[in-house]
Amino acid sequence: MRIGIVAGGPKELLANLLAFQHQIDFWIGADLGAKYLLDAGIDIHMAVGDFDSVSVHDKELIKAATPRFVLYPTEKDETDLELAIRLALEQEPDSIQLFGVTGGRLDHELANIHLLYRLMKRNVFGEIVDHQNQLSLYKSGKYHIKNVHPGQYISFIPFSQMVKNLTLKGFYYPLDKITIEWGGSTLCISNQIIDEQGTFSFTDGILIMIKSVDPLKS
Q: Which of 146, 127, 150 is nearest to 138 (CA)?
């Protein structure tokens, strides 16, 4: 089960949802994100939130188009996105991709990145996707990345206090068992895969990987 959750971040930063239509089995719209799904012509399986970011007319359109419409009060302890994730986890998914969760309010954006940690603890692969970036968290282990996007930059940032024995192979800037610490190092920023695939591995910690395309260079 692959779930896509669309939240109400700035529309100009939203990824092309239609490009992911055949990769997602179950779509959830969180507040304004449900309107984004309607606008894209994608069937909504569930809509969640207080819907204070849409008009009364659009709210009724969303409600009519959605098999499961879950309305929450405006004053609550969780964001609409967090509520959507909670309901998504009830479906026991293998992965959850989050769209429309970057840009706009910085407090929401940082909190949304931390929500990926909740998914990791549930052994669910989580990824944040926008028009320019893909961000995901990894436990210690060995991983392979296919080189499918020419000009794509790949950066690694420690999410935990320390990431030990980080090794990069198949990259323009390889690394061999380097320890990186939380605290501002830019050592692992703006790398690129130069082989058919790149490999990264580490023995301890939690690592953020960000794939980015620079629109000024693409």
A: 127
